[in-house]
Every structure is written in structure tokens, then in C-alpha cells.
Amino acid sequence: MSAFAVAVDGPAGSGKSSVCRGVASELGMRYLDTGAMYRAITWAMLDADIDVEDAESIAAAAQSVQITSGTDPHKPTISVNGQDVSEPIRSADVTGAVSAVSAVPAVRQLLVELQRDEVAHAGASGIVVEGRDIGTVVLPDAPVKIFLTADPAVRALRRAKEDSERTNVHVSVADTEAALIARDEKDSTRASSPLTQAQDAIVVDTTELNLQQVIAEVVSQIKAARGA
């Protein structure tokens, strides 16, 4: 590993993206959203009318999908074969299909290689990487591992608010909580790289903390690891 990497894992709605971008911005580090990469490849499958339950077809089609991630925490980007998909990957269709596509071993192998390559080229600034298997699979030797969690009801409230603001359409908190719980179950029980807390990860429960408090805690852990 040629760059100082911070691995941040946790279930959907735990605040990973906001926290990681805030941490990376404060410390002048790069930022990689691996969840966006899985959403991007899911979008590509849907766009090509590939059955997301057909693992063999997905594995074959994934080989021709070129995903490019921008790692500027102030303006992260994601593209598929040169097309910016930052907005469409957040659609309900992609959200509903991403767990199935993410469970395909060939997809995970492909994206893990891309993720490790991003880390290898992050440079002296280092990089904050968020996802669900970063500390356990992608970067098991990362010097700092954080596992963010929160009460499901709180996660649902945050995600529904975020989605409502992004789409300007009211999103039900109850429906969001049910969807989050269902995704937690799928992600935690899949055979390939399940959502699991690394044994040496620092657990940060964000239930009763605001964003700035969580960022401050993670920054403190990183500075301690770097001897700053």
C-alpha cells in the first residue's frame, strides 16, 4: 500500500459519505466512495437491460464496463464508459438492485482491484475509503479502520431527509427504514465480502452525534495513528 489509507465501513444510512468527505476535506486527503462504484455498475446493468438476478450475465457484462471515480472530496464524481452517472445511480431502481449486483463475486473482484488501484495512486496526501468491506477485504492492512453505525430509526430518518432534499419529493421514513433493514440483511449475509466489522475497527455510534462531532472523532483517530 503506497498511500496512507483510512478504511470506513458501516451499514446504509450511517453517515459514511458525509463523514468521509468531511474528514478528507479537513485533512487534505483524497476520498473514494466504493458504494458509488457498485451503484455505477448496477446502473450499467439496468441500462443494458440485463437481469440483475442473472449472476452469469452480470459477470460477463461487467468486464466491459469502465468505471472512473473522481476522488476530490469537495466534488467527487463517478462515470460509466465516460458518461457522468452521479445522479442516476441514486435512483430507486438502482437502490433496489444494487445488493443483487454487488453480491456477484466477479463484480466484487473487479471493483476491489479498481479500489486498490485508486489507493495505490492516492499519493502522499492519503485517502479515505468508504464502503462495506473496506477494512475486512479491500484494505485489511489499513492503519485506521472505522466502523460507523447508528440506530436503524435514526439512519432511516437521515436517509429519507437526504433523499427528499435531493429529489424534492417527500420520502417516507417508514418505507426507508424497511428498505435499510432489508439491505442490511442482504449485505450482511451475502457469500462474497459481506458487510462485517473488522476486529480491529474503531466503532463510532453516530446515533446521538451530529456530523461535526463524528468528523472530529474520526479526525482525532487518524491524527493519533499518524502521530500528529
Task: Describe it.
- It is a single chain.
- The protein has a single domain (5-222), classed as Rossmann fold (3-Layer(aba) Sandwich).
- The strands form 2 sheets. A 5-stranded parallel beta sheet has the order 2-6-1-7-8, sandwiched between helices. The protein has a 3-stranded antiparallel beta sheet with strand order 3-4-5, with helices on one face.
- The chain is globular.
- The chain is α/β, with parallel strands linked by helices and 228 residues long.
- The mean pLDDT is 93.
- 50% of the residues lie in helices and 15% in strands.
> What structural category do the secondary elements indicate?
alpha/beta
Extended strand count: 8
- Please outline the major beta sheet: 5 strands, parallel
Number of domains: 1
CATH class call: Alpha Beta
The overall pLDDT, averaged over residues, is 93
CATH topology category name = Rossmann fold
Provide the CATH architecture.
3-Layer(aba) Sandwich
* Percent of residues in beta strands: 5-15%
Helix content: 40-55%
Q: Any low-confidence stretches, pLDDT <50, length ≥5? A: none
> Helical region count?
9
